[in-house]
Design goal:
With 411 residues, the chain is α/β, with parallel strands linked by helices. It folds into two domains: 193 residues, 3-Layer(aba) Sandwich (Rossmann fold); 156 residues, Phosphoglycerate kinase, N-terminal domain (Rossmann fold, 3-Layer(aba) Sandwich), CATH 3.40.50.1260. The protein is built from 15 helices and 17 strands. It is elongated and about 65 Å long.
């Protein structure tokens, strides 16, 4: 992969002494459920290479993840369906621990043979998880001999399972996390030119930092999705009933000011597809322009904008895409996102797609395997692109320390 040309700098599980040891592996198994059935196991499959490496080298894996946003222990958010599916994918029994930490969990972990896999209960059943509680971190450390973080999607959070425990055990990057950081850092710091950044979704506020970062390093920043209406509102352009993130209008105006004289061309839609309501059966109208009449809402970029964005993507040496161009989940308003997705899939340059909605769009169009890297992290990928530190990455051992055999510093 082209992103491998970027130095990582953190200790990798591929160099970890796992034989005869237990590895606490932070994975991202926050998967969608319909009752107790997993509807998309992409995140589970993404963790398999790291788990298989640990098993093949004679180690045992104690996996830990969050699932949803439970307010304490809740059977609805149990990891039981995940344990079943993980066992099927690994073709081995995966035992589900009755809790996250505690004497019984420690006992079960101590009985694991080489090659065995155990999954802890939902980490968010513990109130100390999101608070990065030191006691919870120490309890987690009692379960294993070393720590592996393979949950890039949660690496931007300083939680007990992503940051705290890394100060109590030798801490390594999993294969997925390592590839994520390499691919995204390659786009940010060492792109093949020209660099084209495509941003969509609803909120400008989520992406202001990314826009500002790339204004001085990209050739073009192409804007779509509902976030364009906050920008139009800041320009005094009528947006009708379109979704506007009112808190972002001021920051959107500042982005436009910042874009004047910047290296990158900040490109906004020039035509739109409108609907009366947010519904697949609603009345539809295409307009050549961006002023939205009262009683209508913008729900997709127009065909001329889509063609222009596709041309820019086709000529790019590197493409980073985060966020759909419209309400792609409604078929009448999926054309713009599909046009961009097809262009990214066919682009000759290095292509990276980040964010859950963008990944869902690629998958729904059957194009997920046509990009160079499909990131598992939405917020984490944006924060890394913006240049922010990711606590779950920073807490890992430096590669140099690992080579010298020095353990992680205790927290």
């Amino acid at each position: 992969m082209s992103g491998d040309r970027t130095a990582f700098g953190k200790a990798s599980v591929r160099d970890a002494p796992v034989e005869g040891r237990r590895a606490l592996v932070r994975v991202d198994f926050n998967v969608p459920l319909d009752s107790d059935e997993i509807t998309d196991d992409t995140r589970i499959k993404a963790a398999l290479p790291t788990l298989e490496l640990i098993r093949e080298r004679g180690g045992a894996a104690v996996c830990v993840s969050h699932l949803g946003r439970p307010k304490g222990p809740d059977p609805e958010f149990s990891m039981a369906p995940v344990a079943r599916r993980l066992g099927q994918l690994l073709d081995t029994e995966v035992r589900l621990a009755p809790a996250v930490v505690g004497p019984e969990v420690e006992r079960l972990a101590s009985t694991l043979e080489p090659g065995a896999v155990m999954l802890l209960e939902n980490s968010r059943f513990e109130p100390g998880e999101t608070a990065d509680d030191p006691e919870l971190a120490r309890g987690l450390a009692e379960l294993a001999d070393l720590y592996v973080n393979d949950a890039f999607g949660a690496a931007h959070r300083a939680h007990a399972t992503t940051e705290g425990v890394a100060h109590h055990l030798p801490a390594y990057a999993g294969l997925l996390l390592e590839r994520e950081v390499r691919a995204l850092t390659a786009v940010r710091d060492n792109p093949q030119r020209p660099l084209v950044v495509v941003l969509g979704g609803a909120k400008v506020s989520d992406k202001v930092g990314v826009i500002e970062r790339f204004l001085d390093s990209a050739e073009q920043i192409l804007i779509g999705g509902a976030m364009c209406f906050s920008i139009f509102r800041s320009q005094g352009i009528a947006v009708g009933d379109s979704l506007v993130d009112e808190e972002s209008v001021n920051s959107a105006g500042k982005v436009l000011e910042r874009a004047e004289g910047a290296r990158a061309d900040l490109v906004l839609p020039s035509d739109l597809v409108l609907g009366r309501e947010f519904d697949a059966e609603t009345e539809i109208r295409e307009i050549d322009g961006v002023e939205v009449p009262d009683g209508w809402m913008g729900l997709d970029i127009g065909p001329r904008t889509g063609d222009g964005y596709a041309s820019a993507i086709a000529a790019a040496g590197t493409v980073f895409w985060n966020g759909p161009m419209g309400a792609f989940e409604l078929e009448p308003f999926a054309r713009g996102t599909r046009r961009v997705a097809q262009a990214v899939a066919e682009a000759p340059g290095f292509t990276v797609v980040g964010g859950g909605d963008s990944a869902a769009a690629l998958t729904s169009f059957g194009l997920a395997d046509r990009v160079d890297w499909l990131s598992t992290g939405g917020g984490a990928s944006l924060e890394l692109m913006e240049g922010k530190a990711l606590p779950g990455v920073d807490a890992l051992m430096d590669a140099e320390r690992a080579r010298d055999g020095r353990p992680a510093e205790a927290g």
